[in-house]
Amino acid sequence: MTYKRIMLKLSGEALSKDGMGQGISQPTLHKIAQDIAAVSKKGVQMVIVVGGGNIWRYRDTTDSGIERTASDTMGMLATIMNGVALQAALESMGMFCRVASAIQVPQVAEPYIRRRVIRHLEKNRIVICAGGTGNPFFTTDSAAALRALELNCDIVLKATNVDGIYDKDPNKHTDAVLYKELTYDEALQKHLNVMDQSAFSLCQDQDLPIRVFNFNIEGSLMKAAMGEDVGTLVHG
After folding, report:
1. Which of 47, 56, 157, 235 is most deeply packed, by most CB within 10 A?
2. Is residue 19 scored above 60 in pLDDT?
3. Residue 58's pLDDT is what?
4. 228 lies in which domain range?
């Protein structure tokens, strides 16, 4: 095993049917929880950040008339809903899991306190960090990078629906080329959208590696968590 502690970044859409829709699909949620539980049982300490795009996302609702700060707050609340759903699925499998939220909602999640979260991880509890960073104008990519650094994670595993990072969109271009490995500088020079710029800069500044992989391929999370060569690795 290469990694002791990992950050898994999931999109909110990953919880929906076929990974592309709205809401939460129970079979999809159950499958994701199974994959996460299998990795945790190997002794890997797991931190998870899940987005809220399956419920609410500012860029998809700009015509709603809701101003940006309020809209981003709604998105952060959506991540808490997803986090609680994932927690329930994991606990139904006998796993110990905590939701730590940057927004205080003590009835459903404990507040994000770094030392407390680290203690949970040391006890091999899965921790879902919800509520984004607690601030508007920051994506859940930024939340994942920030929490990964705060909690001393060894790597950020970014789950996607493609096999890694390509030179162009593989869903639109059949001749798209997959990169197996990139430096931070190469990713910047080639204008590859690995993460949003704030998140990417955090990882680059602190030399935190990022592995982008296809979460829909059976066993891919386990392979990524074990340090196997899946998807694309971005490093210093």
Report:
1. 157
2. no
3. 82
4. 5-235
The 3-state DSSP class for residue 217 equals coil
Tokens for 232, please give them.
């694309």
Number of domains comprising the chain: 1
Task: Report residue 124 as tokens.
Answer: 């091999």
- Residue 199 has a CB neighbour count (10 Å cut-off) of 24
Average pLDDT, the chain: 94
DSSP reduced 3-state for 38: helix
Least confident of 195-199, 201-205, 207-211: 195-199
Read off the tokens for 176: 């798209």
Helix (H), strand (E) at residue 50:
strand 45-50
Q: What is the rounded radius of gyration, in angstroms, for the C-alpha atoms of the chain?
A: 17
Q: In the chain, which residue ranges form alpha helices assigned H by DSSP?
A: 26-40, 68-91, 114-122, 140-150, 184-189, 197-205, 220-225
| pLDDT bucket at 194, cuts 50 / 70 / 90 | confident
Dihedral sign from CA coordinates of 135, 232, 184, 204: positive
CB atoms inside a 10 Å sphere around CB 207: 9
Closest by Cα among 112, 113, 138 to 199: 138
